[in-house]
Model the fold of this input.
Amino acid sequence: MSFFRKLVHVVYEFVEAFVISASVFVVIYLFLMQPHQVKGSSMFPTFKDKEYLLTDKVTYRTRAPRDGDVIVFKAPINEDFDFIKRIIATPGQTVMLKEGRVYVDGQMLDEFYLPKEYMTVPGQFLHEGEEYTVLPEEIMTFGDNRDHSSDSRDWGPVPYRNIVGKVFFRYWPSNVAGLVMSQ
Done:
């Protein structure tokens, strides 16, 4: 084989490997999972600014979102941005804020993932002592860092169509890498 043929063969194999790898990546990114970076402190202490997460895009095709799931969704106020929040209530459930605590269906929510001193204040949408019943095809989401989170308390429920997926794995920084558990 001449040098030119060998070179063409090597370049062809390289291009073939690149195209196959890129195709696999695109399929995974579009249909199975997607990386996201935490921006800001709205999910502290669960997640810190600049951590990297993987979002599962398949789970909600096989089951409905559940209370406690951490999700990524298109922000209702500007769909160009993705938000990371925790589901507090799902369709048919009632949500109420009373004396700094969250009540779902009349029961105080056990928010074991938050420090005991955290209080949940009302917002522009969800007012102190008023119940809101979550409608079909929508969820209520709150950030874990309640004092520094723009969430359903201010702008209301998140429509199902805005959900990107369920956060299932934190991969950076490596010292905190691992599965993300829901309630």
